[in-house]
Amino acid sequence: MKTLFKTLLLIGSTAFAQFAPIVGDEGCIAIPMDSPLFVAWADNGSVERGWMNSADTTLGKVDFGLIEDCYGAPNPAILSLGDGGIASFEFQNQLYNGEGFDFAVFENAFDNYFLELAFVEVSSNGLDFFRFDAQSLTSTENQISTFGLLDTKHIHNLAGKYPGQWGTPFDLSELEIHADLNINAISHIRIVDVVGSIDPLYASVDANNRIINDPWPTDFYMGGFDLDAIGIIHQNQLEIEELPEVLIYPNPVSKSGILKFQSNHPITNRKLIDALGNVFFLPEITEIRISDYCSHKGLYILEYELLGRLYHQKILVR
């Protein structure tokens, strides 16, 4: 029966096809999870869970998955957002607008047709978010049922356009019109579940104010958009910033030597990060014997907080 539904769906939609097609068809823009394009993955986020059913909030909110399930490359663990739920991610190494797509969002749809959708927003200051211009040409004559099917070619700039292990990509250049957004210093990405109801009381709309019709209601504990991962394609290197009013010396420092900290304000949240990404946490005292905290010689990045801002400095241990 499901195969028949897919066939009818494709026949009925051919005349209205507009956007990139399914995985395997010419013109598909999906990016596989093992693509060498990905240089990093989201690993620092928070979640605001949505309702199981916006039209019946007595059912409560979804509770499947943890934000940590979205860290790193796609895996079997997922985070369900529920109606209107939000997952937010912060990136210490900011994203920039490079050639082509700049990042991709992974959902866990099990095929090319059973899709659940989400808006994608970005920010360069963590406060002001700007949404990619989502487009949905799916008919709103009848509600897509809970396990109903969608045509990928009717969807654009919505996460969830492609099945699990295939990322839906986004190009930051599309947002360059926003004066308050620095597309070469994106610090946050936010994923917002689309409430797929065609009832105007609950519906989500696209950039042209069209109601977005997707499977609804999903009134169970793992309903709504199921976020798997966010893959980063273009990411700025770690900014190295040294403050003249802060003295951290000697540098280079001997592995058996003492590293000293001097500042008019408390230097907190200190840690050394080696070339392999290993982290060595340091106490908040004025003198530290390096051998007590670092296991080997080499170049480290010292990360610390001063007056509520994060700074980085190169430290050579020899």
Task: Tell me what the structure shows.
The chain is mainly beta and 318 residues long. It folds into two domains: 2-232, Jelly Rolls (Sandwich); 247-317, Immunoglobulin-like. 4% of the residues lie in helices and 30% in strands. The chain contains one helix and 20 strands. Strands 1, 2, 4, 6, 11 and 13 form a six-stranded antiparallel beta sheet that branches. β14 and β15 form a beta hairpin. The protein is elongated, with a radius of gyration of 23 Å.
List the helices and strands and how they pair.
Elements: H1 2-13, E1 31-32, E2 40-41, E3 45-48, E4 79-80, E5 86-95, E6 103-107, E7 118-123, E8 130-131, E9 135-136, E10 155-156, E11 166-170, E12 186-193, E13 226-232, E14 247-249, E15 258-262, E16 267-273, E17 279-281, E18 287-289, E19 298-306, E20 309-317
Antiparallel strand pairs: 1-11, 2-13, 3-5, 4-13, 5-12, 6-11, 6-13, 7-8, 7-12, 9-10, 14-15, 15-18, 16-17, 16-19, 19-20
Number of contiguous helices: 1
Helix and strand content put the structural class at mainly beta
Number of domains: 2
Q: CATH-wise, what's the superfamily of the largest domain?
A: Galactose-binding domain-like
Radius of gyration: 23 Å
> How much is the average pLDDT?
90
* Annotated CATH architecture of the largest domain: Sandwich
The largest pleated sheet is described as: 6 strands, antiparallel
Shape: elongated
Fold-level CATH name of the largest domain: Jelly Rolls
- Give me the count of strands: 20
Query: What is the CA–CA distance across the termini?
Result: 68 Å
Strand percentage: 25-35%
The level-1 CATH class of the largest domain: Mainly Beta
Helix content: under 10%
Q: Enumerate the spans where pLDDT stays under 50 for 5 or more consecutive residues.
A: 1-15
Order of helices and strands: HEEEEEEEEEEEEEEEEEEEE
